[in-house]
Amino acid sequence: MENGPQVDFLVMGAGVAGLRAAIELAQHGEVLVVTKESLRESNTHYAQGGIAVAMEGKKDIALHLEDTVNAGDGLVSRPAAEALVSEGPLRVAELIEWGANFDQAVDAEGHRLSGLYLRTREGAHSLARILHASGDATGAEISRALVAFARAHHRIRFAEWTRVAGLVVAEGRVMGADLASAEAAPHEPGAAGDNAPIAERRIIASSVLIASGGAGQVYSDTTNPAVATGDGIALAAEAGAELADMEFYQFHPTAFAFEGAPRFLLSEALRGEGACLRNDRGERFMERYHPLLELAPRDVVARAIALEGMADAPGSVAAPSRPVYLDMRHVRDVDLATRFPGIGAFLARYGLSLSRDLIPVRPAAHYLMGGIRTDLGGRTSLAGLYAAGEAACTGVHGANRLASNSLLEGLVFGARAARSMLAESPSPATAPAAPDFGPAARHLTMAEGERVESLIVALEASMWASAGLLREESSLRQGLVALGETDAALTEIAASGHTSRRLAEAQAMSRVARAILLSSLARTESRGAHFRSDHPHRDDANFRKHSALGREGSVHFEAW
Ligand code: SIN
């Protein structure tokens, strides 16, 4: 490995939080943004529904705060939520100035009515406040605007197809990162050859921001892209940073459930525009679960779908045997082709249409409310290390994130973390003495690569069965046993001295999975996205607190 150049700031992740932070940091220093695929491949890019923001002044902001707090089931950090909803409008206005185009009303001739933004409603929002772009491609538009703005900045450089192999910690402070080439998966174009050498280099930086998103890939059913393997969270934990609230994984109620198809997200905005849910007997079953029906909080809708899917039939929540459908056939006042062009095009590949067909759905892992514990300035428990966006846990979402608050979170807390980094980073960074790196690491052999793939598949299935929508002590303990076997096999493969992006991802997923299992075992109550069948009630006396996971795997609870 060689020592690479020194930079002022290193940002891991090119989603909304990482890019927004990079733009702020570049006002005062050189920034390197590292992403393991191309710039377009992030959770941000795939976000459909929109960005929740209160642009109409104080009353509007107060209502957004109330909805955020209510959705979080007693665990939202109020100062974090206040920062989100009150700074959100400024961050969105700035984004519009930088070129993001949100959908606007049009006059009779089809001309845009400037500044008159269209807004939709999603679950647990008391009113329609969600901006969207190109109908159902909000994340792609935000990503496009931020990438274009950041690319034009002379102090921001990008390292695509590059992964962070480890954080450099010296004198109790994170001082940079070791980077490695992040080759494509085996058999894909650009995949590294059998046992090929891996290019590595060390980058020294004044401070490091982890904005690498979530870890939906730890579950077999997820709406997340393949890159969401929890790498940043695992790296931070390995370096000694504290994780928090890892038991709270949000399951999106409506992922596409079609044999052989990916769990494509069918946006909550569909329900916001009138779609209802039906079981296989044609009943609109949400009437039995919540007064807000299909627009109830996400965790309630997801559990209702799972329960309907297993009602009076063999099967389990992990593998429900009865289909559940999203029904939009009755919606007449929305031009579905313009409002949901991306979803429409995807469904057409399977011969389905929103206006004509019942669309089969089931819940899938979607968003991690927990993550690397930070304060409101993105500071982790390790000096020199900051985190923002889905990888971080500020407590802003509590036990259950309000729909479409995540893009706003990335903007607000990405900017906040950058401001802390600017204020606190020692300058210039002092490089620790260059170690003797030895010969270049080599890629896994094909056989080792295949073994890693099968271990990943087993881990994902085990997590879905043991720590999915409904969990209980016995399932969580079984999950830990299975994970112990996976870990032993991964350690054996790593002992060959070979490595690869997929091996590193498997190790990261395993670390994140363990954190989810241990935190879920410790929280012996049900709250928000965490539902324990053996402790089905909320227990405020003991658990109106955040969980914190120490380095040695111990979990404690703290009010903050
Ligand atoms: C959706 O469009 O349903 C997803 C939005 C979100 O996760 O907040």
Summarize it.
The protein has 560 residues and is of the alpha/beta class. The chain has 15 helices and 24 strands.
Describe the structure.
By secondary structure, this protein is α/β, with parallel strands linked by helices. It has three domains: 1-104 and 118-185 and 200-248 and 369-430 and 540-560, FAD/NAD(P)-binding domain; 277-364, Alpha-Beta Complex (Flavocytochrome C3, Chain A, domain 1), CATH 3.90.700; 442-539, Methane Monooxygenase Hydroxylase, Chain G, domain 1. Helices cover 34% and strands 19% of the residues. It has helices at 16-25, 43-46, 58-71, 78-97, 138-151, 231-239, 268-272, 298-310, 336-339, 341-348, 406-424, 446-466, 473-494, 501-522, 540-543; strands at residues 2-3, 7-12, 31-34, 51-52, 104-106, 112-117, 119-120, 130-131, 156-159, 162-170, 173-181, 200-210, 243-244, 249-256, 276-278, 324-327, 358-368, 371-373, 385-387, 392-393, 442-443, 498-499, 546-549, 555-558. Strands 1, 2, 3, 9, 10, 11, 12 and 19 form an eight-stranded mixed sheet that branches. A five-stranded mixed sheet has the order 20-18-13-23-24. Strands 14-17-16-15 form a four-stranded antiparallel sheet, with helices on one face. Strand 5 (104-106) and strand 6 form a beta hairpin. Helix 12 (446-466) packs parallel to helix 14 (501-522). It is globular, with a radius of gyration of 23 Å. The model has no long low-confidence stretch (mean pLDDT 92). Succinic acid binds next to helix 7. Residues 47-49, 267-269, 367, 403-404, 406 line the site of succinic acid.
